Amino acid sequence: MSHEIKNYLVTGGAGFIGSHLVDSLLSEGNNVITIDNFDEFYSKEVKLSNIASALTFDTFQLIEGDIRDKDLLDDLFSNNHIDVVIHLAAKAGVRPSIENTVEYYDVNINGTLNILEAMKKFDVKNLIFASSSSVYGNNKKVPFSESDIVDYPISPYAATKKSGELLCHTYHHLYDFKINCLRFFTVYGPRQRPDLAIHKFSKMILNDETIPMFGDGTTKRDYTYIDDIIQGIKLAIKNLNGYEVFNLGESRTIMLKELITLIEKEIGKKANIEKLPLQPGDVEQTYADVSKAKELLNYDPQYEIEEGIKNFIEWLKKS
Ligand SMILES: NC(=O)c1ccc[n+]([C@@H]2O[C@H](COP(=O)([O-])OP(=O)(O)OC[C@H]3O[C@@H](n4cnc5c(N)ncnc54)[C@H](O)[C@@H]3O)[C@@H](O)[C@H]2O)c1
Fold it and tell me: Tell me, which fold does domain 7-185+225-249+289-302 have in CATH?
């Protein structure tokens, strides 16, 4: 299938989701620029290995820098023609946002505003914004749908993501930006962030360490395999029309204790579990209604958790 080569800016492209997107866009012959400040949330070494393959492409440009640096953004946008921005750079993670609320606000809200302002100044009008299932807070109605009210976040991280959506809508309204906000539901797979449960638990079980289980193991998550998220992002890029919000999940929920059992089975070892109190900011469950993405984007998630965990553990053992 022939397709038009485009120039993409992927913010946070050295991270987990970003690096997979960068690889996929490069493999189709596109030009990709990434701005990433190698935030110390996890190691630069890991992020550099995420983009090791991308760095071999002449069509890839890495700019080591911060989205809070307006002069740098001005240079970036004035020196490069950009068709679409995929804004993934953020301070991620719910629990640390309670400790570092001011920094989360600064990067996720002011940083997003800087990206929008630079786009306005340089007349770039196509944007994908990485939002999160956390905006649903402790929504009682399941599955979560884009038409549900999301005015009740329970963590600073969630509030920054909801704020990002609000800023996006404003720029769509005032300046006719075409924006899709994608609410990702817990993403996992090769290169997953080391702070997230699947990665953390698998590594600890492999190393015979005791894993901390927050709560009684009945909190539920809709875990989305990275290839499905990349499929969703790319479909969202192709379908930029006005302003839309889409859930990207698998539409299946797994209890934390079931997840641990799946990991144990795949690794072939029992976990030592230490039960700890539920963490503030953690929601009870996430569960995506993906019918809107299916209908408007043709999103068609492929991975059951069993297969995804198997792929992840294979990758972890090799890495
Ligand atoms: N992984 C998930 O389950 C999940 C779920 C919902 C939403 N999201 C969102 O998706 C996006 C990507 O998440 P991820 O899991 O790949 O996280 P990640 O931490 O692996 O990637 C984020 C990248 O952004 C970079 N970054 C952070 N602050 C920056 C700054 N000030 N300037 C430039 N770069 C900066 C980091 O160095 C990192 O490489 C984030 O916006 C996150 O909030 C992720």
Answer: Rossmann fold (3.40.50)
